[in-house]
Design a protein that fits this description.
The complex is a heterodimer of chains A (457) and B (426). By secondary structure, chain A is of the alpha/beta class. Chain A has 3 domains: 134 residues, Tetratricopeptide repeat domain (Serine Threonine Protein Phosphatase 5, Tetratricopeptide repeat); 167 residues, P-loop containing nucleotide triphosphate hydrolases (Rossmann fold), CATH 3.40.50; 74 residues, Orthogonal Bundle (Helicase, Ruva Protein, domain 3), CATH 1.10.8.60. Chain A is built from 22 helices and 10 strands. Chain A has a 6-stranded mixed beta sheet with strand order 3-5-6-7-4-8, with helices on both faces. Chain A has a two-stranded antiparallel ribbon with strand order 1-2. In chain A, strand 1 and strand 2 form a beta hairpin. In chain A, helix 6 runs antiparallel to helix 7 and helix 14 packs parallel to helix 16. Chain A is globular, with a radius of gyration of 25 Å. Chain A starts with a helix and ends in a 5-residue tail after the last helix. Chain B has 426 residues and is mostly helical. Among the domains of chain B are: 67 residues, Tetratricopeptide repeat domain (Serine Threonine Protein Phosphatase 5, Tetratricopeptide repeat); 83 residues, no CATH class; 111 residues, no CATH class. Chain B is 77% helix and 0% strand. Chain B is built from 21 helices and no strands. In chain B, helix 11 packs parallel to helix 13, helix 18 runs antiparallel to helix 19 and helix 19 packs antiparallel against helix 20. Chain B is elongated. The two termini of chain B are 32 Å apart. The chains are: A alpha/beta (457), B mainly alpha (426). The interface between A and B is medium-sized, with 24 and 20 residues.
Chain lengths: 457, 426
């Protein structure tokens, strides 16, 4: 990016905080420490609580050899904003430099727990090399402390750390609720009927011979909120949320898989009421006929056995699966007692799209922005497609700002143009899904797709 | 083996080709000379729309890194077949066989290349060679059934398909082969069942979906005639097919002259047969689609373009027929003219909606517009001069241009660039 053009834009818009931060980062990348500091100070003058600027200042202090001052500032920042993962990570790095590996490990674990993307294998290796072996453990009050010497039973009160060990995402309680997810009323209602009511009224359901918990499969086109709905479901039933992603699943095929899968289930059972969420379930529950390696078949058999609760009870444990390719699932997973409740998550409806548009609009200089208008123009768009719309419009505004040398807001017109340029990615999915719904729907599994496509009343 | 590479293989097995490509690329960043990674990349890119040219490039790189191995050469051959370059593919498949005569994959690749150049007998030999190496090779077995059918050896094809199904009753390709053999035999219901079974196993199989559509269309006797013609023609090479068409056109002309010399009225049935043949081969698809639109189940098998084509061709043809007959019966000649023009417009219109070539769609749309404009001018001219012969004055010259355009569109329809998708975009 042309730094001089940005300075030009900054001259025209001296109070633009995002721009100030951007230019400061670029200056920092070029080791222009003084210039970067001056810009960050300007941000703090405008917004004294701006955490990005405060973090940047700490980083610059460290660059200038004033590590202890940086640590003090980070302590302050972490106590003021304990959910700021990047600050914890920098604090871990600086603490390690100070020779306090154990404390560095605590800060590192806190950062990763808050935000998995902060994981830095090289830093962790350095910490471990320097003696920071004990994991930092999140307590129920949100405090972190050193793990006690109870490694022989990793599930005793150390759920977060055990989850970290297994490489899965873990939340003691999901913060999301249905009210945080805009629109999608039909899906919410389906989830209430098929998941929440049975869990909240187990006796009533038991009277009808039905059990609470069990497996529910969410399927639909990619980027349409299946993961978000799973999290919100956990929030609604006030349950622990454990999420296993595609890469952890694939790693199971490579490493000591069955044992790891069993540990994941054990951890979930230990934390119940819990929602154990398998994203991209088709990767784990793939059709065994397509498997060339017997290792894969064994893992699938293990998964089936865990779902059946053959080795332990699955009461109060809800196993949620999400997939874009339900047709790749082994038929055995859809039998009663396993993923026997199926919920179709279609692309966001009008209300949901308006809500998503509002989320993407946050923090952007917008004029003439009408979320409902954008929602109306984006029928069939996934959440990811809507993000692409905002990205494209922002790029257009930025290009114009570069040309003019002054701040140009993202206009409604730019957004409308972007809605025409971005094509809905769900179309391809529905083409494939339609074939399955038309030709392989003997059990009525894909009826919701046919209804959504208007092919069935 | 490198973990990232294993992960990419797992992703491919699960049909996640885009993610697999990203993973292989990341692996290649660390090991840029890994030939197997390039093969993996090519295998994934073959499955992603629009990436065949890149897949070929990857297979070439793999060949360069392991020149003594037959697999990358065979892989290149398969990609070239998909890129509709069967001659180049054949040469590479032969090189692969020379390197490793016991590679079933190489023999199958040669078989595919030979099918691409319509050399059925040799393709059959290749499939049999692959089966000699491994009697349980599903690809070879399916190719053999396919190539036997193309030679109209339907019983043998069916036996091979059934042999495969006895070994693997969940083989979608074998069911599709059995479906096509049944269709070629004229057993429309049997074909429909086979294709449905094939699609139950693999709903995205194009070969079976096309078959099911054809079997639905074949419910109409008119379309069955067209299918018989198409199955008859497929036995011959490209050159021979062209020679047969030219021969038929010349034959019709000679027959017309002979008929005229016997009795002038005899020309009419000969001309009718000729135009039925000429129009039939162009319009059969669109008219069959129109008939399918009335069937609530069968119409679901049509894609949106085929539905539009069915609607437009049906409207132009049957609407035109009604207008033509009504116009002459009630002596409202402008209506008859419009009816006639509607009927002839079906010919260029049949090459618009389902034409994979964008250039073709534009050209035939323009011809349609031109034919319609000429038709309107004709109708206005006829309306202005009641009592005059229909084809006279301005109407006559319009009629001449109109015939040139319609005849021209039937010739343009044989130009590959105007009728086929650019294989690089597949």
């Amino acid at each position: 990016m042309d730094l001089s053009a940005l300075h030009h834009a900054l001259a025209a818009s001296p109070g633009n905080v995002p721009l100030l931060l951007m230019v400061a980062k670029l200056e920092e990348d070029q080791f222009a420490i003084a210039a970067a500091r001056e810009l960050l100070d300007r941000v703090v003058a405008i917004d004294p609580q701006n955490r990005e600027a405060l973090l940047g200042i700490a980083r610059l202090l460290d660059f200038s050899g004033e590590a202890s001052q940086a640590i003090v500032r980070l302590e302050d920042l972490c106590s003021r904003d304990p959910a700021f993962a990047a600050a914890w990570l920098l604090r871990a790095r600086l603490t390690l430099d100070e020779g306090e590996a154990a404390r560095a490990r605590q800060f590192y674990d806190k950062a990763v727990e808050l935000d998995r993307s902060q994981a830095d294998d090289a830093l962790l290796a350095e910490i471990l090399k320097s003696g920071g072996i004990k994991r930092g453990v999140m307590t129920s009050t949100g405090e972190i402390r050193d793990e006690q010497d109870d490694d022989d039973n990793i599930f005793e009160g150390l759920d977060a750390s055990a989850a970290l060990d297994l490489g899965i995402d873990f939340q003691l309680k999901s913060d999301l609720k249905f009210t945080d997810v805009g629109g999608m009323e039909q899906v919410k209602e389906d989830i209430r009927m098929k998941i929440i009511h049975p869990l909240k009224n187990p006796q009533l359901f038991a009277a009808y011979g039905k059990k609470a918990g069990g497996g529910v499969l969410l399927y639909g086109p990619p980027g349409c909120g299946k993961t978000l709905m799973a999290q919100a479901t956990a929030g609604e039933i006030d349950a622990t949320f454990l999420s296993v992603g595609l890469h952890q699943i694939l790693d199971m095929y490579i490493g000591e898989s069955e044992q790891k899968l069993h540990k994941i289930f054990e951890l979930a059972r230990k934390s119940k009421p819990a929602v154990l969420f398998f994203d991209e379930t088709d990767a784990l529950a793939a059709d065994r006929r397509d498997m060339r390696q017997s290792a894969g078949r064994t893992l699938i058999n293990q998964f089936l056995s865990e779902l059946d609760g053959a080795q332990a009870q699955n009461d109060d444990l809800l196993i949620l699966g999400a997939t874009n390719a339900p047709w790749q699932l082994d038929g055995a997973f859809l039998r009663p007692g396993r993923f026997d409740r199926i919920i179709f998550v279609p692309p966001p409806d009008l209300a949901a799209r308006a809500e998503i548009a509002k989320i993407h609009a946050k923090g952007k200089p917008l004029t003439d922005f009408d979320p409902m208008d954008i929602a109306k123009r984006t029928e069939g768009f996934s959440g990811a497609d809507l993000k692409a719309v905002f990205d494209q419009a922002t790029e257009a505004a930025l290009t114009e700002a570069m040309k003019k040398g002054s701040m140009v807001p993202v206009t409604g017109k730019m957004l409308v143009k972007a809605t025409k340029d971005v094509k809905p990615s769900t179309k391809k999915w529905f083409e494939s899904a339609k074939n399955h719904a038309l030709y392989a729907n003997q059990s009525g599994f894909y009826d919701d797709i046919l209804t959504h496509l208007g092919l069935k009343k | 083996m490198n973990q990232e590479f294993t992960r990419a293989q797992l992703l491919r097995e699960r049909g996640r080709h885009e993610e697999a490509i990203a993973t292989v690329l990341s692996h290649l960043a660390h090991q840029p000379e890994d030939a197997h990674a390039f093969i993996e990349l090519a295998l994934n890119r073959m499955e992603v729309s629009g990436q065949l040219a890149l897949a070929l490039q990857d297979a070439k790189t793999a060949t360069g890194l392991m020149p003594g191995d037959s697999f990358p050469l065979s892989l290149q051959a398969r990609i070239l077949v998909q890129l509709e370059k069967p001659k180049e593919a054949l040469a590479l498949a032969e090189s692969a066989i020379a390197l490793e005569p016991e590679s079933g994959y190489a023999w199958n690749s040669k078989c595919l290349a030979l099918i691409g150049v319509s050399r059925w007998k040799e393709a059959e030999e290749c499939a049999r060679n692959a089966l000699m190496l491994d009697a349980d090779d599903p690809t070879a077995s399916n190719l053999l059934a396919h190539v036997l059918r193309l030679q109209n050896r339907l019983d043998e094809s069916e036996i091979e398909a059934n042999r495969r199904l006895a070994r693997d009753p969940e083989n979608a390709f074998s069911f599709a082969n059995a479906g096509w053999a049944a269709l070629q035999r004229g057993d429309v219901k049997g074909a429909e069942n086979h294709f449905k079974e094939s699609l139950r196993i693999d709903p995205n199989m194009e070969y079976a979906r096309d078959g099911l559509k054809e079997s639905y269309r074949a419910r109409s006797a008119f379309y069955r005639l067209f299918l018989k013609w198409a199955f008859f023609m497929q036995r011959f090479s490209q050159g021979n097919r062209f020679a047969i068409i030219i021969g038929m056109i010349i034959g019709f002309r000679i027959l017309k002259i002979l008929a005229a010399s016997v009795h002038p009225l005899l020309v009419i049935p000969v001309a009718l047969a000729y135009y039925l043949f000429l129009f039939g081969s162009w319009l059969s698809g669109g008219l069959a689609n129109f008939l399918l639109l009335r069937d609530p189940v069968a119409r679901l098998s049509l894609d949106p373009a085929e539905k539009i084509e069915g609607g437009v061709i049906g409207l132009l043809f049957f609407g035109g027929l009604v207008a033509l007959v009504a116009g002459f019966a009630m002596e409202i000649h402008p209506i008859a003219v419009i009816g006639g023009v509607m009927i002839v417009t079906t010919l260029p219109a049949s090459m618009i909606f389902t034409n994979p070539s964008q250039k073709g769609r534009v050209v035939f749309s323009l011809i349609c517009v031109a034919v319609s404009v000429l038709g309107i001018i004709m109708a206005i001219d006829v309306a202005r001069h009641p009592g005059r012969e229909i084809i006279e004055g301005q109407a006559a010259s319009c009629f001449t241009y109109l015939l040139i355009l319609v005849a021209g569109s039937s010739w343009l329809g044989m130009v590959d660039a105007l009728r086929k998708q650019n294989p690089n975009h597949k």
